[in-house]
Design brief:
binds magnesium ion, 8-stranded parallel sheet, binds 2-carboxyarabinitol-1,5-diphosphate, alpha/beta
Length: 433
């Protein structure tokens, strides 16, 4: 089978250590054979086009072209090895333009999903990875062994800066460790960025003094990179230790630049993934959340939303737990059934997984059963929707975590903790649909 003059299927090819390997789900267009579709994908994502070229000798291309070295027609899966010379080290946009670019639009495929990418050591080593990672964040809070508790100020939009800070203070006093802005709150006329940061950090410091616990605030600095740079510096100058970024909407170019800034300023990056589901959600088309999570670990976010299994956002148990493994572990074994390639992470620190979306005190037991204790559990409505208000909601959420840490069933603990008992009366242990 030849496509554009070259043969890309080479089942005898044995990938080199330095090759980058991509795992795809491939659904050929009606009338196109599976092999033809594989040829078209390998060609378009490496060196070829639709016709044979007169501009380069075949021998040279054979060295540089992508090779389809494995495929399973029944499962519609294939592995493609790309010589590392095709990529610019420490340049994620260029990587995506290759293995996640034109190929999604070629007529030879009806559907195409990039499921995983195995990154070679030379590529991994061209990135810094997280500045803090799980250990660095735990040291910041001096909390070594329990899940961290976060809250998102709700409503998403509508409060002014003073109301935002006052609500944050209540939730910190109630027992929450970290408070974040919502993903679409940045600098609106009713809640100006600088005023919110100043007032919220004052509230944070007041809560620290009154509780004796470390508390942190994650301001959303999302915007054009020059603005994000200014905002990161402003947060640092006001005594902040975190920035929150909507990493998909700002894009990898801005994120790679921002990572340099936060490295110098020693700011923790909390990565919100708003818009990811536009391309991760469909089983048979797009780019997996696993690939997105790997690239974000590589660039160096410290905390990343990975899904909840039990909350309001989609994400199966298998998929979410594979993502958790991928951002935490140093060595990942290949598991084709789970559509995961092997991966070494060398000296790239682990990223703190964040579970958020439709969570409330009644499902904290489920969360810890699935995720263990290395998890940041974030509640928006599950705290701000408490019948007795946000302070009670925060107390109830912290009581749920305290119960787990004491090995007491939440229902039992609620008998002697009224804030938790009111939350369970309202939401029970049900999963938000
Ligand atoms: C959660 C949240 C988060 C989502 C993000 C929201 O609020 O603030 O943005 O969890 O989803 O706006 O929905 P609630 P994911 O606690 O009130 O649901 O973590 O899947 O990216
Ligand atoms: Mg949100």
């Amino acid at each position: 089978m030849v496509y554009g003059g070259y043969k890309f299927i080479e089942k005898k090819y044995n990938p080199r250590e330095t090759d980058l390997i991509a795992l795809f789900y491939v659904d050929p267009t009606k009338g196109i054979s599976f092999e033809k579709a594989l040829e078209a994908i390998a060609s378009e994502s490496s060196v070829g086009t639709w016709t044979k070229l007169k501009t380069i000798q075949e021998k040279k291309q054979n060295k540089l072209k992508a090779k389809v070295f494995w495929y399973d027609k029944k499962k519609k899966l294939c592995k493609i090895a790309y010589p590392i010379e095709l990529f610019e080290l420490s340049n994620i946009p260029q990587l995506l333009s290759s293995v996640a670019g034109n190929i999604f639009g070629i007529k030879a495929v009806e559907n195409l999903k990039l499921l995983d990418i195995k990154l070679p050591k030379i590529y991994i080593n061209s990135f810094e990875g997280p500045e803090f990672g799980i250990i660095g964040v735990r040291n910041l809070f001096n909390v070594k062994d329990r899940p961290l508790l976060g809250s998102i100020i709700k409503p998403k939009l509508g409060l002014n800066a003073s109301e935002h800070a006052k609500l944050a203070y209540k939730v910190w006093i109630g027992g929450v460790d970290i408070i974040k802005d919502d993903e679409n709150l940045t600098n609106q006329p009713f809640n100006k960025f600088e005023e919110r940061i100043i007032k919220s950090l004052e509230a944070r410091d007041k809560a620290i003094n009154e509780t004796g616990e470390r508390k942190e605030y994650m301001p959303n600095i999302t915007g054009p990179i020059d603005l994000m740079m200014e905002r990161a510096e402003f947060v640092k100058n006001q005594g902040g230790n975190y920035v929150m970024v909507d990493v998909v909407t700002v894009g990898f170019s801005a994120l790679q630049f921002l990572r340099k800034i936060t490295g110098k300023l020693k700011l923790v990056i909390h990565a919100h993934r708003a818009m990811h589901a536009a391309f991760t959600r469909k089983r048979n088309h797009g780019i997996s959340m696993l690939v997105l999570a790997k690239l974000l670990r590589l660039v160096g976010v410290d905390q990343l939303h990975i899904g909840t299994i039990v909350g309001k956002m989609e994400g199966s148990k298998e998929e979410v737990l594979e993502i958790k493994k991928e951002i935490e572990k140093e060595i990942i074994d290949e598991n084709i059934k789970a559509k995961v390639l092997s991966q070494f992470w060398y000296n790239i620190k682990p990223v703190f997984p964040v579970a958020s979306g439709g969570l409330h005190p009644g499902i904290v037991e489920d969360l810890v059963r699935y995720f263990g204790k290395d998890i940041i559990i974030q509640m928006g409505g599950g705290i701000h929707g408490h019948p007795k208000g946000a302070l009670y909601g925060a107390i109830a959420a912290r009581q749920a975590i305290d119960a787990i840490m004491k090995g007491i069933k939440i229902k039992e603990y609620a008998k002697t903790h009224k804030e938790l008992s009111i939350a369970l009366k309202k939401w029970g242990k049900k999963r938000v649909k």
